[in-house]
Amino acid sequence: xxxxxxxxRNNYFDVDCDSEPTDVGSSRQTLPVFRNAERTxxxxxxxxxxxxxxxxxxxxxxxxxxxxxxxPVNVPTIEASDSTFSDGSDLHEGKYFNxxxxxxxKLSDIAMKGNFEFWTRKSNxxxxxxxxxxxxxxxxxHASKIVxxxxxxxxxxxxxxHSCSLLNRNANxxxxxxxxxxxxxxxxxxGVEKGPGPKxxxxxxxxxxxxxxxxxxxxxxxxxxxxxxxxxPEQSFHVLPSYFHMLEKLNPGTVTRIEVDGESRxxxxxxxxxxxxxxxxxxxxxxxxxxxxxxxxxxGVLLVATAQDGNGQCYPLAWGIVDSENEDAWSWFLTQLxxxxxxxxxxxxxxxxxxxxxxxxxxxxxxxxxxxxxxxxAQNIKNKFKCADIMGSYWSAVNAYRCEDFTGYMIExxxxxxxxxxxxxxxxxxxxxSRCHYPGLRYNITTTNMVESLNSMLVNARDxxxxxxxxxxxxxxxxxxxDRRIVAMAITTPLTPSRESELRxxxxxxxxRHTSQLNPITYHVKGGELEGVVDIFNKTCTCxxxxxxxxxxxxxxxxxxxxxxxxxxxxxxxxxxxxxxxAYGETIYPVGSQS
Length: 595
Fold this sequence. Notes:
single chain
């Protein structure tokens, strides 16, 4: 199935029915027991409660027959006194509401704040009659449509004064539904990623609405608030094609893909902003890839590919959502990634050692070099061999620039833990984790920390519907691009701040070194723990630090001083202010409302 954005069914990943918490409290509200009342059906089939036959109450709000009269009985005006109390609302006869739903929401809010309950005397599409649950109370409301074909409701009759006992005032009433709670608390989730948790919703209901609710109802209310603000998962799938279309329109060069299965059900998605694709030319060609499990209704895994800018910050290149971290999903994602970054022997891909990633990389990228995240390798060593005391030698071997130094550290490891040495050499492979043995160019990037930082950034959005999650990603990236552009414009040195700080100690350490010229481009630098031979034209040094990091080592700085060459001319352009500014020179624009 191709990656067309059109026509996939609203039938997605299998729903995990166990994702909702167990109802630790009562999730069902017990309806009040009314004196002399029984349950009947109203005009539209909904259940309503009305007095039992044989004992009809006198209801001044409804038409009654008798004494030859078929007219509504006038309601006497009742004012609050020592034995009565007002519901404290601004309702009045003749007040209009756009819909019956708006009216019901208003009454639920009034009831919760006033700690009283009402029951529905009669309800259909054109009428709503409610009364206080105390049959002896005077509080009641009668509303109906303005005209039959309208959706607007108007209050026809209203008595806003209670004459019931305080025993009937209840903070745990059935008007405090999870829908009402969700609607009330929803504004607290606008513009934030996390917002109140279920306990926070319970506190909100108690302090702001005067309602005591269970943890489970608070959880459902929070979920409903999320849906109101961010849309439902089903709505998210429905608007995804149009959302991607607008992203492409507002951000030229943006690449989006949607993959569906044989039954037109959603399978995978891919997103790479055009701004990031163009900016990658100013990045070192090292890309970290990793995945993060999502926690929404349809689960899935968020895949990320990111580079690192000249200031040492993550530079997100591409995003994907797949069903799971399997070889097919990774192969599909990496195929899309390959289309935007290419495949050359100058490209390095860094990941953990998951078999699905390893196999997918070897299948999709034929020329690029794959490196293992050295932190994950370290965790595997500690978990598999229980030898935390050897980790110092491991990290020294990881960071060794020269192979002779690396060999010395490996001998230390082999003498103490021969199985660990065998694992590093044969199962992992020196070329995957050792800086000096790596066949490509990975600079000083040895872990997938740049990807992990993105995962941490999105931890509060993991349960969002997919479009809402992509909105968070776009918002974060837009902010980063703007903030870093401002920083780049304010830089007063030739290099980015982090590289300038890294190079500055080399200047101090180069003082006192004895430098001699061997030929027009080669210099011999003595002094310190290690001497070096520097080629200022090819930008190499026998210490190998200059070769791998592409930042002048102490020897290169000394050679540049002797040759009266600017040290900055020996620095990789990827570390310069110019490249940093070019990488963030454009803007990422939001889609806006999908309603």
